[in-house]
């Protein structure tokens, strides 16, 4: 990214999240991406700085290059296979997680807690839910078996002390509880929102603010969070979205299917 | 499936042994194929989300007033709404259930599950796949390393078993084999015997075919056995698993069929608008107009509209045109 590129201050929260999350990927990685912002962010990274990024979709796709203006409605349609290296049965692409070929899993989230556990199944008790959400899909498999980036809007109702239901395991109850309960690999690495970038304390596994987006204060992040956040000793500020990134995002999603 | 969680191995073997596995023609109509499904069967559905959904066959089962099915699928979209709302099935076993993220959460699914009118049993996507695979392999379970430690595994405690690896001693989770009574699969082409070739995304279709007691195949077109034999490496489902072959052009509409047509977005948007406003009345109106109303599948396609179908076909064929 050029340092002197002109910047635009007009962007949606979704565009900001997609740009900031995409920057966390590294060229050459293998990333298992969910539909929506993760798919968009990974495709953006591919085009801006990571041409050798290999994207996997749960529909069975290895290494596609999504065509601008033709975003798929899920990761299971033919639009997901454009310029891919291979298509596998979906079970076998998920098994790549279990075998260990995936560097990072990348998903959205409806509800998250202090230890990075995600809920996409039930609001209220599972046997009598107030809201039945769509469920795990591959989310439980991805988060059980690899390091995770989660991209979501920063709202108090989404950042809760304890999720109603652990669909996708983060650090469970913190400390070494994830390993003790039978998940020796993977874990929640980064949470990217429209306010900040967060990680998890290496010991307690509590969520910690690492970087604020331009113009955002720590207090603002805390006010939009339903539990007490840790604060990194050296809190940094992210580079604002660059014109090139915004232009590419709008080229990929001209109909604002994912970025409304 | 009522009764034991995993089908007894000798029963599974007897069921296969009892079937006529010879090379024979099985071409029939949608109505005839619907007779091969019994009330209460466990029916597995091929494809995934909006892809290669055997929609015409599901449509036909609803019209035949089949009821009480347990239905399983990797990921469930609008067909799940229709299955619940028509009474075709009261239990769906799947990893995800809604129309698709761009349309939000299914109001019809929510209504049925939250009111206790129907069940949506959630498994992880990989666990669904490994259950079918174990079924297709003739073994009673598969060990997995997901669904452990989370509530997804906890709420399935009656159906999964923690296990210790007999070699390494590590903790794994055993998920039970799934051997459906019937598999409904839609493919691009098949011959009259049921040799099926499918293009693009395969999802779990091959495992489902091998796991099921019988397969009902719908196909965009029936081709000659000679054509199949010219490219046997493209055949994914062997004829002896198949009990019925039905030629149904646009048999996945309004969902997609890889390389043939994309999802019919105009129909999906209309359905989403209908059910968002009124989940009960909206889906009833859709069933009346689009399922019970048309004289036959061609009549249904006429309701979808020629121009809409042509647009979807143009977009579908783009995949071969880069």
From TrEMBL, chain A:
The keyword GTP-binding does not apply. It comes from the Bacteria. Keywords: Transferase. One of its GO terms (molecular function) is transferase activity. It holds the Pfam family CoA_trans. Gene3D superfamilies: Glutaconate Coenzyme A-transferase. InterPro entries: CoA_trans_fam_I (IPR004165), NagB/RpiA_transferase-like (IPR037171). This is 3-oxoadipate--succinyl-CoA transferase subunit B.
UniProtKB/TrEMBL annotation, chain B:
Keywords: Transferase. One of its GO terms (molecular function) is transferase activity. The keyword Thylakoid does not apply. The keyword Lipid metabolism does not apply. It comes from the Bacteria. SUPFAM superfamilies: NagB/RpiA/CoA transferase-like. PANTHER family: ACETATE COA-TRANSFERASE YDIF, CHOLESTEROL RING-CLEAVING HYDROLASE IPDB SUBUNIT. This is CoA transferase subunit A. It comes from Rhodoplanes tepidamans (Rhodoplanes cryptolactis). The lineage of its organism: Bacteria, Pseudomonadati, Pseudomonadota, Alphaproteobacteria, Hyphomicrobiales.
